[in-house]
Amino acid sequence: MTLSNPLETSPQLKTMLAAVESACRESLNHKILLSEPAIFQMLSYHMGWDPALPGKKGKRIRPLLVCLVAQACGTDWQRTLPAAASVELLHNFTLIHDDIQDQSDERHGLPALWKIHGIAQAINAGDAMYSLALDHLWRLRSAFSVEIIAQCSEQLTLTCLHLTAGQYQDMEFETRPVIRDVAIAGTSGQKFPVTADEYIRMVEGKTTAMLRACCNIGTILAGATEEMQATFDAFGYHLGIAFQVMDDYLGVWGDSAQTGKSNATDLINHKRSIPVIWGLERSSAFQQRWVNGDIQASDIYLLRDMLTDAGVASDVLMLAKDHTLKAFACLQKAITLGAHTSYLPDLTEWLLNRNK
Prior knowledge:
The chain is mainly α. It is built from 18 helices and 4 strands.
């Protein structure tokens, strides 16, 4: 059963989402950007705001988390909008650079920024987005102290370091050998096949760091207790792991017509997702086909069946379910500590159980 999207069914979440979108748009109205219209146009295009080439926008889940967590901890979510916009800008800075590094031709159904403007200018646009993210955070000063803003800024800068480490690991995985007990000599020593534990560490940087930062910023702005901050930090961690594992599952077994995510790209591009890591460990047939290379779209159903027969599909879902239950346990603990989680459970349920 496909769960209804609360972003489309809840009037209050629609209001919050519209306010987030407005705050993000406002962030681009910076005098430096307005003096260089070409950069402004590139960022507007990437965000889905170019009227000449309207694209599908992202879900804006990360800024919503900032607002929802802050509201759950007792503050007016509208006061947090500059921080919400900042995390969305930071997220999109990483997407611009990721598309270049991954050689991804499309983003939300339109050509990726680098495909239109070239790699060098897309890097410039990503750098501008990063700078805007940090600059826009200071619009909080009308409602919060410098000390509070500094704590939020520290969250964003540390998140960037975690994201960089996670992206490095994700790219480095592609250079690893496939066959167990066969090592490849690298500049930093021998390389071995990617393990599930290494995958989790990569996800902790590439996916969970940003979601944890959103939760932490929400609690900081709300002046939450240390125990409440730790509870929402753990919620962000488990939400991030479950979200990425589920994303990897959908990248192999999902219905692309419903998810908008291809169920062939990860395998064709030899991405070391958790289904692939476990498949290489458990199925000699899958391993052999992977080693042979040149995977085509016509091979996907056979490879998917190999993974299913090896028990990989069920174990990937089990891993996602484990972290999903832990995320909900964190929300339940937050309630016992006095939080009013309102739409957080519904949003979490939809994110982690979408189109299985």
